[in-house]
């Protein structure tokens, strides 16, 4: 059976962990699992690597995890912690000596254009400016990357519609406060579910651990990894409290699922 690998480049909340100016136990922790950059993953299959979101730490994340090639980028939504590393993909343009497909829904493409309009212009051979070379691909339903189907999963991030994605027997759902009823059909029969779990307490734009566990209990994946983790959750102590088959993700974690 063919498989995919999912590498967590980042597993933290929008402020990262440690947070600037915070002296809490987790921010001061020496456990490397408590050091979390902004949320992003690389999905690897058939010898190709697909990047989901471009965080502000993208360059450092790729160096730390020895990611030296990317074949496409897919976006969940247009918030700063998910897009602000876009300029760094120019290095992957140079390595592949060609453009990269950028997959996003219409609102996210609008945000990318507003912030990075220069990156979507056709390069002028007379210019000696090193910038990204990107091709827009609009998500309007299921789509294929390198021969594999990606299924968008509509989610809510507060009142903002965002996307999760199912690829094979894996679903990636970051920045979620509610899973619409019609989206649950995409979350059954999973080897791996990655889902937002910000903190123990409830939050208007993210699932709490208890809310995320209710999703897990309903769809019953084989394994679940929580992401978009805030500084209230110590990695080791929190994992001891979670049920079997459910763990906090951490930067650099590599997991496998059926394709």
Tell me what the structure shows:
With 259 residues, the protein is an alpha/beta fold. The chain has a single domain, classed as Ribonuclease Z/Hydroxyacylglutathione hydrolase-like (Metallo-beta-lactamase, Chain A, 4-Layer Sandwich). 18% of the residues lie in helices and 29% in strands. The strands form two sheets. The protein has a seven-stranded mixed beta sheet. Strands 7-8-9-10-11-12-13 form a seven-stranded mixed beta sheet. The radius of gyration is 18 Å and the shape is globular. The model has no long low-confidence stretch (mean pLDDT 96).
List the helices and strands and how they pair.
Layout: E1 3-10, E2 40-45, E3 48-52, H1 58-64, E4 72-74, H2 80-83, H3 90-96, E5 100-104, H4 106-116, E6 134-138, E7 143-145, E8 148-157, E9 160-167, E10 170-173, E11 192-196, H5 209-219, E12 223-227, H6 235-241, E13 246-248, E14 254-258
Parallel strand pairs: 3-4, 4-5, 5-6, 10-11, 11-12, 12-13
Antiparallel strand pairs: 1-2, 1-14, 2-3, 7-8, 8-9, 9-10
């Amino acid at each position: 059976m063919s498989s995919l690998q999912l590498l967590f480049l980042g597993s933290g909340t929008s402020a990262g962990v440690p947070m600037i100016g915070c002296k809490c136990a987790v921010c001061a922790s020496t456990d490397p699992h408590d050091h979390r950059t902004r949320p992003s993953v690389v999905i690897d299959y058939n010898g190709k690597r697909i990047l989901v979101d471009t965080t502000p730490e993208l360059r450092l994340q790729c160096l730390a995890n020895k990611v030296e090639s990317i074949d496409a980028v897919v976006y969940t939504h247009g918030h700063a912690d998910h897009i602000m590393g876009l300029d760094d993909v120019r290095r992957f343009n140079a390595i592949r000596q060609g453009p990269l497909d950028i997959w996003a829904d219409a609102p996210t493409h609008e945000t990318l254009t507003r912030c990075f309009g220069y990156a979507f212009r056709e390069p002028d051979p007379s210019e000696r400016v090193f910038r990204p070379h990107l091709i827009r691909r609009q998500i309007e339903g299921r789509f294929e990357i390198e021969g594999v189907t990606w299924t968008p999963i509509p989610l809510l991030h507060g009142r903002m519609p965002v996307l999760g994605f199912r690829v094979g027997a894996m679903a990636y759902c970051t920045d979620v406060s509610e899973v619409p009823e019609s989206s649950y059909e995409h979350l059954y029969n999973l080897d791996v579910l990655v889902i937002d779990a910000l903190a123990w307490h409830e939050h208007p734009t993210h699932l709490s651990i208890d809310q995320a566990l209710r999703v897990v209990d309903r769809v019953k994946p084989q394994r679940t990894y929580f992401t978009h983790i805030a500084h209230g959750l110590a990695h080791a102590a929190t994992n001891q409290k979670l049920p079997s088959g459910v763990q906090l993700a951490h930067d650099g974690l590599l997991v496998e699922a059926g394709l």
